[in-house]
Design brief:
The chain contains twelve helices and ten strands. It is an alpha+beta fold and about 350 residues long. The strands form two sheets. A five-stranded mixed sheet has the order 1-2-3-4-5, with helices on both faces. Helix 7 crosses helix 11 and helix 8 packs parallel to helix 11. The longest helix is centred in the last third of the chain and has 22 residues.
Length: about 350
């Protein structure tokens, strides 16, 4: 197995694929200066006739929120270029399976516009899958001093194929192939199989979340979202879930199936219940403390995700892998029984951590 894929396998699920590849990509740009130069010229960040310049590549730099922002911003990669006494700054945001966060690109653009000590400012949004500009939060703002560039990872892969085939370049290409970042415009055999069985899979997931599960969830936490919302979550976030919004839509108990954007072909999705908070939640610090205490409690099976990231949507979840149910004769019944167990575990947290979680 290629090196980077082996390293990613060491992480527990959900795997931090985006952050992992961000570090790989930044390292490639740092180590292979010819690739950095050629790529910046190819996407017209620097003039094609420029012979020399200085460039510095950073990852995960944090910017405090502007007055109009609810949370801090942390672009994946920042590149600073000095050439002919002109200073250029680039924010690069990378997506493989995830989608744009809450007004993420808007915040990055507004921060770039506020950096007065740079002469030229670029905001680059590079994704594996097609994203319409109409779907981005940046679409309706007037970028006076920021140049917005939208790219696809498949284009960078083709660019790499034209570069010197070093060991590092080979490993990056292998990782991109494993994550399907090289074939964004092609249907694969697995895609065709998924399309043929898509409707049946949706109906099975709907069945798992109905009958006694829906009734029990509504009694415990309030009326859950409808199935149309579950389909929207599936399209935007790769999860088929039903949920209820509490504390002015900033605290979310939800139940369903997760991880259906995974590119590891042999991995099954997880299913269960989760509690999630909006980055701008007014009770964020208190709820986050409660979540950390729950995740650190070895006497339960709750797991935390994004609990140390100031700009994330942190959550705790109580889940099993779908593979555990495949041997059951009636899988829908067995999953429903597990969902009822999940709701019971969530009710225990509601009773034990009611003040910390601001459950209302």
């Amino acid at each position: 197995m290629p090196l980077f894929n082996q390293l990613l396998r060491l992480y527990a699920s959900p795997k931090p694929t985006e952050d992992f590849f961000t570090e790989i990509f930044a390292y490639l740009l740092q180590e292979e200066s010819e690739i950095l130069t050629s790529w910046l010229k190819r996407i017209r960040v620097i003039p094609s006739n420029l012979s020399s310049f200085q460039a510095h590549v950073f990852t995960q730099g944090t910017y405090e929120p502007l007055e109009s922002h609810d949370l801090a911003s942390r672009p994946d990669i920042q590149i600073e270029v000095l050439a002919d006494q002109q200073r250029t700054i680039i924010f690069l945001e990378s997506k493989i399976t995830a989608v744009e966060g809450d007004k993420q690109l808007r915040r990055y653009a507004e921060i770039l516009e506020s950096l007065s000590h740079f002469d030229v400012r670029f905001l680059i949004y590079i994704t594996r899958d097609y994203v319409s500009k109409a779907d981005l939060s940046i679409k309706d703002i007037d970028l006076k001093r920021v140049i917005f560039v939208q790219l696809r990872w498949q284009d960078f892969y083709r660019f790499l194929e034209q570069q010197k085939n070093t060991q590092l370049v080979r490993e990056v290409k292998l990782f991109m192939e494993q994550q399907r970042m090289n074939v964004g415009n092609q249907f694969l055999a697995t895609d065709l199989i998924a399309l043929m069985h898509f409707h049946r899979s949706i109906k099975l997931m709907e069945a798992c979340l109905r009958e006694g599960v829906e009734e029990k969830f509504n009694e415990a936490f309030g009326k859950m979202s409808n199935l149309a919302a579950a389909s929207t979550q599936f399209q935007n976030h790769g999860r088929f879930i039903r949920y209820v919004s509490l504390n002015k839509r900033s605290f979310w108990p939800g139940i369903g199936f997760f991880g259906m954007t995974s590119n590891a072909q042999l991995e099954y999705p997880n299913l269960g219940v989760f509690l999630q908070i909006d980055p701008g939640c007014q009770f964020r610090d208190s709820i986050l403390k409660g979540m950390i205490d729950i995740a650190n409690d070895k006497s339960n099976a709750w797991k935390g995700f994004g609990l140390n990231n100031a700009s994330s949507w942190p959550n705790i979840s109580y889940t099993k892998n779908l593979q555990e149910f495949l041997s059951e004769d009636d899988q829908v019944f067995s999953i429903q029984r597990f969902f009822l167990e999940c709701i019971g575990e969530c009710q225990k947290l509601k009773d034990s951590y009611s003040d910390d979680l601001h459950w209302s």
